[in-house]
């Protein structure tokens, strides 16, 4: 009897294998039929000109494995760039929840999900994702850059500064920190704190023109005119292209102190440093009032021979109009000057050195490329 049982064991095993195989084949056939139905449904959606629904269906059909993972990354990025952030979020959340992907791929899915949230304006969730990823060496720097972008978008300048200071201390980051301290200064009611943050901005970026201008405004508002003058004049050392933006407030300080000579001395320094047409025009007006039209005309003509600008030409015509006799010549000059003035009015005064965005307003952060400190006065014929 026992011998018979031992003889039947291989038969039983074979039967079990056969039945199990049939069962697996049956399941595979069911899955294949289900896959075929969904695939056919996807094709019908494509043919019915409903590609978005078709894509969603095909994504469901893709199992997450080493062969299809790249497809999921590509689709997630594509959806985010197209503004279909909900779909991108769905794909990346699905990847995070999978048990059959590597830890690196899971972290990468979290990183992409953080970018999805940031793009959608869901800042609290984006902050959670990037804050967690800071603890992982491979994602640390990139996550901090996105956190910096996030805190700037939410105007949380304190957090933005802390994150920026944890990034590599290259020149660009130092300049960004300077701008962030200027933003923080503008949020303060306390004058002492405003001054403190502007000085911190100059500590991290000694060429931060914005901090000097803000300090000049603060000191002038408190009638600390000599301190204001010092801050405004420091712009000549930082970046002479911005002299046009401090001349009028600087002049007001000097005039309040009845120190016209000090202002003229500074204008001469600006002209010697080739700091732009605005200083030339200011100095030519002084010469006109004190030495006459011929001296003013010779001065501005000499300056125009070195660096011709439309604004300089407009001023030169003004001197000619003042000297011209009443009549047709004077009216013709007025008409020509009006045309030049209209041209100047229509031309941008500032342009971003990073992306080329231009306009009449000085933005310390470019509205187009979001770069700090890249917008400067335009040079050349239409500028300074």
From TrEMBL:
The lineage of its organism: Bacteria, Pseudomonadati, Pseudomonadota, Gammaproteobacteria, Alteromonadales. It comes from Idiomarina baltica OS145. Fe cation binds at residues 352, 355, 366, 369. Residues 21-384 are cytoplasmic. Residues 350-376 form the LapB rubredoxin metal binding domain. This is Lipopolysaccharide assembly protein B. It is a single-pass membrane protein. It is found in: Cell inner membrane. SUPFAM superfamilies: HCP-like.
């Amino acid at each position: 009897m026992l011998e018979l049982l031992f003889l039947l064991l291989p038969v039983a095993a074979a039967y079990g294998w056969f039945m199990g195989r049939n069962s697996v084949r049956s399941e595979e056939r069911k899955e294949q039929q289900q896959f075929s139905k969904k695939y056919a449904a996807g094709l019908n959606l494509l043919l019915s000109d409903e590609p978005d629904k078709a894509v969603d269906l095909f994504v469901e059909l893709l199992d997450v494995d080493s062969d299809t993972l790249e497809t999921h990354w590509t689709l997630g990025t594509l959806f985010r760039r197209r503004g279909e952030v909900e779909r991108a979020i769905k794909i990346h959340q699905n990847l995070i929840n999978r048990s059959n992907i590597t830890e690196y791929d899971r972290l990468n899915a979290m990183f992409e999900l953080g970018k999805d949230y940031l793009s959608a304006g869901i800042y609290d969730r984006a902050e959670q994702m990037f804050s967690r990823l800071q603890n992982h060496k491979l994602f640390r720097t990139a996550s901090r850059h996105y956190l910096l972008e996030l805190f700037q978008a939410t105007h949380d300048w304190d957090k933005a500064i802390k994150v920026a200071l944890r990034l590599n201390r290259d020149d660009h980051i130092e300049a960004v920190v300077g701008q962030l301290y200027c933003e923080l200064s503008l949020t303060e009611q306390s004058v002492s704190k405003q001054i403190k943050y502007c000085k911190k901005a100059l500590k991290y970026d000694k060429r931060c023109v914005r901090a000097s201008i803000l300090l000049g405004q603060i000191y002038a508002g408190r009638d600390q005119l000599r301190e204001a003058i010092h801050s405004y004049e420091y712009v000549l050392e930082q970046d002479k292209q911005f002299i046009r933006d401090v001349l009028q407030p600087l002049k007001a300080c000097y005039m309040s102190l009845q120190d016209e000579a000090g202002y003229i001395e500074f204008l001469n320094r600006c002209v010697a440093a080739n700091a732009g047409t605005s200083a030339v025009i200011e100095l030519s007006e002084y010469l006109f009032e004190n030495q006459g039209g011929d001296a003013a005309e010779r001065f501005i003509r000499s300056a125009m021979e070195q660096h011709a600008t439309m604004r300089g030409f407009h001023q030169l015509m003004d001197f000619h109009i003042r000297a011209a006799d009443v009549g047709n010549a004077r009216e013709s000059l007025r008409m020509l000057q009006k045309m030049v003035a209209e041209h100047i009015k229509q031309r941008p005064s500032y342009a971003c050195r990073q992306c080329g965005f231009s306009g009449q307003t000085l933005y310390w952060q470019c509205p187009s490329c979001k770069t700090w400190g890249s917008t400067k006065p335009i040079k050349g014929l239409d500028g300074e």
